[in-house]
Each structure stands twice: as structure tokens, then as C-alpha cells.
Design brief:
Blueprint lengths: L1 H6 L7 E3 L7 H5 L8 E2 L3 H6 L1 E3 L5 H6 L2 H10 L4 E3 L4 E4 L4 H14 L3 E3 L4 E7 L2 E7 L4 E3 L3 E3 L14 H8 L4 E7 L3 E3 L10 E11 L2 E12 L3 E3 L1 H15 L4 E6 L6 H14 L5 H4 L6 H11 L12 H12 L1 E8 L7 E6 L17 E3 L7 E2 L4 H26 L1
Parallel strand pairs: 1-6, 10-19
Antiparallel strand pairs: 2-5, 3-20, 4-5, 7-8, 8-9, 11-18, 12-15, 12-17, 13-14, 13-16, 14-15, 16-17
Helix pairs in contact: 9-12
Bound molecules: flavin-adenine dinucleotide.
Length: 405
């Protein structure tokens, strides 16, 4: 949508082909329906939040960055708010506001939007783009084509990897597709408390017993494992370890602000204050209730034991588990369930100054179809908007020179 809007400033006609009955299905799901459209941090910090190929985006961001995007929406009457960690949302709290603004702009710029129109293939001739073939058999001539088909996650929204297939067929290198920003599955028979969110915990990830990542934040237990912001951030790296068949463990520290000794003293105090109370019930002071049964089972002490019957060694074991609750990570959730697709069209085959293919003249790429992916926080949408803007402008300028000649 952004590519078409920008292209229409420089060239006519611009046609947007969308296989769904309307554009922006995935956009409506973003930010839990609120659309975290960008992030207001500095360019360097922004680039550092990309897991792959952030540097490739420098030119696109120079052309159209976070403040340009915010101005774009504000000029069109959309009020924006900046929330914690510089995340930008529409003040309406609705992704629909962003989508409707883009749709209005498409209409205003006379972009011909054709929905329910699935592109089957692109047609090239002597390394030049010539046309697109539609699924219904029609063929549309085109001197420039921008591929903005997204990745392969959440395929129900229309992102089924078609553009990646066309790129491969026309000789572009494709970096293998993997899930990014995705939940992790754990290998345990325990019944973990699905839906429980833990705030201010420390997660430490081990690759073959080596501590590699440790960070404080928020996580969530899911039906098959763990998710939430902290897990999503590191999930791409962990997916790579799992692909390499590495043994991966995560340790949850429920009380990262307290040292082992401080936590031990705290527990001792709790036990001394209520010597006749069952130790299991005292755990409520230190753990969410739905976690207690898991602890009781792991520790194996009778739940009926009273605090004054708990031995010093057992106290140490309780503290040890509070500081180091380990789970084996056996897999990531599926690629189709991931928030983003890692991999895609290799940046080596795209000119970062224009987003044009280095192999086919008149063919451009933007958004998640390219091998760029970032953390949560508005970085992925800004990458899509910026590369879309640059691809649209470059394609329109090339189309103009072709028309003139
Ligand atoms: C649940 C969820 C929440 C997210 N939240 C955020 C967030 O808050 N902030 C953020 O920055 N990022 C977020 N993301 C990531 C962000 O949504 C994507 O990175 C972004 O949508 C990519 O945009 P795109 O235009 O490249 O591709 P897409 O949004 O996937 O759009 C591709 C479009 O191409 C169409 N298409 C595909 N194939 C064809 C074909 N053959 N013919 C015609 N049309 C076709 C599709 O129907 C679709 O409309 C989220 C992702 C998910 C899944």
C-alpha cells in the first residue's frame, strides 16, 4: 500500500493487486489489534534492533523514517501516541485507523486497487520485467513491478510466500525461511500453568550447557511452552540453535532482584513467622499460586509438611528452584504461527538505494519478502513502510523514464 501511494506521486497508472477481498489483513492484527506502527528511537538504535541485515535498510530509512511516517499519518488526521519503549500507536487504539488512512490515500491518489486478484507469476524477458500473470489467466503488461507479498507466517492473512517463489524462479538467492518472534515449546510432562504471565523474571538460555543469553523481562506460559516479550526477542537465535541440533535449556529466575542468600533469608523469615503453616502455603508469598503445584511436584516434599519440619537442605532446594527453574526447549512453534518470517529474498540481490533487483530490471522488493527481520516494537512495520516507500518511488521514476524514451 505504501509503495503504491508513493509511486502514484510520480507516475500513473499505478495498480495494486491483492488476492484477498481487501488489503491489510495482517496489518489489522498488528500490536494486538492496536498497530505498533513504528518506534521513535534513534536511527542507530533502530538498526541495532534488526536480527538480520539492519544495515541494508540505511538508505530506505534515510528516505522515509519514523518521524516521516508519523508525519504522514498526522497530516492525514491520525493522532498518534508514544508508549513505553518508544513504541508508536494510533491514539484510537485501533489498527483499523491506520488501514483506513492508507486506503483513503490510495483512493485519493487514484491508485487502481484490484482485490480478489491473485497473481500467479511474473513474466520476465532478457532480464527485464514485462508483465504479471493472474490466476484467472489474464496477463497485465507492466514496465515495473513491486513485490510486496510478505513472508509465510500467518498464511490466512494472505502471506503465503508467493513472492519468494517468483524471486527464486527468476534466479534470486533465497535465504532459508525460519520462524522469528515465535513461542518456544518445552519438553516436559509437567502441567505448566497455561496463560500465566510472569513479570520481572530473569530468563537464561543455555546452548549445550553454556550460558549464552540472560535478560530480565516478561514471559508467559502457553499450552506447549513459553512465549511473551522476552521469549519472542530471543526466539530467532534459539531457532537457529535448534536447527543446528543443539541442546537448549532455559532457566527461570523468579526473584532476580534477590541473591541466593537474600532469598534464603527471606524464606527463612517466612518459615519462622509461621512455623505451623504448611510450607506449600507459605510459597504463595514468593510465587504465583498456579505455579505452586509444579514446585511441589518437582521438589517431591510432602505438601503437608509444616514450615518447622522443613530441613535446612530442603530450604536450600526451594531457593535453588526459585532461582533456577529449568525447562528443556525442544522446538519453536510453527513457522505459520510466528509473528515474522526470517529469511526470504537475499539482500545481496537487491540494490539498497532503490530496492530494485540486481538481476531483473524493473523488479522491486519491499517488506517482509526481503531477508530482514527485527524485534518487536514497531521495527518490522517501519521496515515495510520504508522499503515500500523507496521501492514505490524508484519504480515510478524508472517507469517515467521508460515512458519518456
Ligand atoms: C500477529 C502479528 C502481530 C504483529 N504486530 C506487529 C506490530 O505491532 N508492529 C510491527 O512492526 N510488526 C508487527 N508484525 C509484523 C508485521 O505485520 C509484518 O512485518 C508486516 O505486515 C509485513 O508487511 P508486508 O507488506 O511486507 O507483508 P504482509 O503484511 O504480509 O502483506 C502481504 C500482502 O500481499 C498479498 N499477497 C500475497 N501473495 C499474493 C498474490 N500472489 N497475489 C496478490 N496478493 C498477494 C497478501 O494477501 C497480503 O495482503 C506483526 C505480525 C503478526 C503476524
Amino acid at each position: 500500500m505504501m509503495a503504491a501511494i508513493c509511486a502514484a506521486q510520480f507516475y500513473h497508472p499505478v495498480i495494486l493487486l491483492e488476492k484477498n477481498s481487501s488489503c491489510g489483513c495482517k496489518l489489522l492484527l498488528t500490536g494486538k489489534g492496536r498497530c505498533n506502527l513504528t518506534n521513535l528511537c534513534s536511527l542507530e538504535e533502530f538498526l541495532s534492533r534488526f536480527f538480520s541485515n539492519g544495515q541494508f535498510l540505511r538508505d530506505a530509512f534515510k528516505e522515509f523514517f519514523n518521524t516521516d511516517l508519523m508525519e504522514f499519518f498526522r497530516e492525514r488526521g491520525v493522532e498518534l501516541v508514544v508508549e513505553r519503549q518508544q513504541r508508536v500507536f494510533p491514539a484510537s487504539g485501533k489498527a483499523k485507523t491506520i488501514l483506513e488512512t492508507l486506503q483513503r490515500e490510495l483512493r485519493g491518489r487514484n491508485v487502481q486497487v484490484i482485490c480478489n486478484c491473485s497473481v500467479k507469476d511474473i513474466v520476465t524477458e532478457e532480464n527485464h520485467i514485462r508483465a504479471v500473470k493472474l490466476k484467472d489467466g489474464r496477463r497485465l503488461s507492466a514496465c515495473c513491478v513491486v513485490i510486496a507479498t510478505g513472508g509465510v507466517s500467518y498464511p490466512d492473512t494472505g502471506s503465503t510466500g508467493d513472492g519468494i517463489r517468483w524471486a527464486r524462479q527468476t534466479g534470486h538467492s533465497i535465504v532459508p525461511l525460519r520462524p522469528g518472534l515465535v513461542g518456544l515449546w518445552v519438553g516436559t510432562d509437567e502441567v505448566l500453568p497455561e496463560g500465566l504471565t510472569l513479570k520481572n523474571i530473569r530468563l537464561t538460555f543455555f546452548n549445550q550447557n553454556k550460558k549464552i543469553i540472560t535478560d530480565i523481562g516478561e514471559m508467559l506460559f502457553t499450552a506447549q511452552g513459553i512465549s511473551g516479550p522476552l521469549v519472542l526477542t530471543y526466539s530467532g537465535l534459539i531457532a537457529d540453535w535448534l536447527l543446528e541440533k543443539k541442546e537448549v535449556w532455559v532457566s527461570i529466575d523468579f526473584k532476580p532482584a534477590l541473591s541466593f542468600e537474600q532469598l534464603h533469608n527471606r524464606l527463612l523469615r517466612e518459615f519462622q513467622n509461621a512455623p505451623a503453616k504448611r510450607w506449600k502455603n507459605i510459597l504463595k508469598e514468593l510465587l504465583p499460586i498456579s505455579m505452586i503445584d509444579v514446585f511441589v511436584k518437582r521438589l517431591g516434599f510432602s505438601p503437608n509438611t509444616t514450615a518447622n519440619q522443613i530441613t535446612a537442605r530442603q530450604r536450600q532446594q526451594i531457593v535453588q528452584l526459585l532461582k533456577d527453574f529449568r525447562l528443556r526447549i525442544c522446538s519453536t512453534a510453527l513457522l505459520k504461527e510466528a509473528m515474522i518470517t526470517r529469511g526470504g529474498v537475499s539482500v545481496k540481490d537487491i540494490d539498497p538505494r532503490t530496492m530494485q533487483s540486481r538481476l531483473i530490471q524493473g523488479l522491486y522488493f519491499c517488506g517482509e519478502v526481503i531477508d530482514v527481520d527485527a524485534d518487536t516494537g514497531g521495527f518490522n512495520l517501519q521496515a515495510a513502510f520504508s522499503t515500500g516507500w523507496l521501492a514505490g518511488k524508484s519504480a515510478a521514476l524508472l517507469a517515467k523514464t521508460k515512458t519518456l524514451s
